[in-house]
Amino acid sequence: SIDGRGFFEKTGLYTYDPGFTSTASCVSAITYIDGDLGQLWYRGYSIDQLAANCTFIETCFLLLYGELPSQRQLDEFENRVKDEMLVHEKIKDFYKGFSPNAHPMSIMCGIVGGLSSFYHEAVDVTDPKQREQYAIKLIAKMPTLAAIAFRTSKGLPIIPQVMVDALDKILILHADHEQNASTSTVRITGSSLANPFACISSGIASLWGPAHGGANEACLQMLDEIGSTENIPKYIAMAKDKNSSFRIMGFGHRVYKNFDPRAKEMQKMCHRVLQELNISNEGLFELAIELEKAALSDQYFISRKLYPNVDFYSGIVLQALKIPRDMFTVIFALARSIGWITQWNEMMSESIVKIGRPRQLYVGNKKRKYMDIKNRV
Ligand code: ACO
């Protein structure tokens, strides 16, 4: 029993593993993480090589088909994606139904789920060709949907090359990350043979939380709250205080106990962007750099192996790119779509798709007799 309170069914044996810290939920050939060595590979290629040499669309091809494309395959793939970029006119009417102050992530949850209403008839998730078509539709439509979610009426700024490179790197580095919370959510939803767009919508909802993809937006909110470099020691002390729920957002990771390899790439890019745009001395960016230094030299963070994760730097880079904060996690969702759909496709290709159905340890009341309302006090 748990704390001497519970009792269990007597049938079978199962493990009690809250947060799945040591339970593999599937067999996968897509992404490999070595948390101790700080390594991350997509289909066997380390992400530093991919981030340095290839584009996001090549990364999509690699994840989806398992191999890097030849030039001909890449051109063909790009053309197929381009052909699917437009969304149904009626989808645009959908946007009018949201509150004018809606967070773009709430719009994305609704809109991507809504796509299932246009692509549901005769859907056969057991057919590999149909699954491939869904994957291409998703990769193609996500940027369009995200762009509509953002109020383009504000006008577009001129974009320097360093910004284009930074955005492409962000997309590559976020493309897949094995069985994280949102991917596990997509797999569990898919395991009931649900519509693929509905599966992705559940992944978007899971990603939104500040302990997951929402950390990039939460990191910037935290920097605002800290306000200036003099306040850093006070906030570091709060993060260490076990009576306070405050955490340094963008620090720590369940699997990486050395350094998040994506963060290493983003850190280089972040410092390059700040330098080339000549904004390292601007309040918020200076504060981020000082906070990074302070936490990395503090025994509390060192002993718990708490390093900046990818969201610490991606938030700062996206802010430097003048992307509105509530779009940060939408961009993450856009990048992760290829990982979600590839993982879904892998699961659906298995000879038997078993519905995801964890058990629990029951600690509630023992069986009781129903009491009529007039006898209750
Ligand atoms: N600031 C201060 N202390 C922290 C932080 C942090 N950011 N992260 C973990 N700790 C401490 C915990 O209090 C705990 O201390 P204790 O051993 O004294 O009890 C210890 O480090 C271990 O932390 P856990 O919460 O057990 O780690 P877990 O693996 O469950 O959580 C998580 C990982 C959710 C990422 C956590 O580090 C966190 O909340 N970070 C901030 C949010 C964030 O950046 N999320 C993005 C993750 S990356 C991504 O999803 C793309």
From TrEMBL:
UniProt keyword annotation of Transferase present: yes
Record carries keyword Transferase: yes
Family statement: Belongs to the citrate synthase family.
GO BP field: tricarboxylic acid cycle
Keywords carried by this UniProt record: Transferase, Tricarboxylic acid cycle
Pathway per the UniProt entry: Carbohydrate metabolism
Residues of the full protein shown: 86 to 462 of 467
GO molecular function, one term: acyltransferase activity, acyl groups converted into alkyl on transfer
Protein name, UniProt field: Citrate synthase
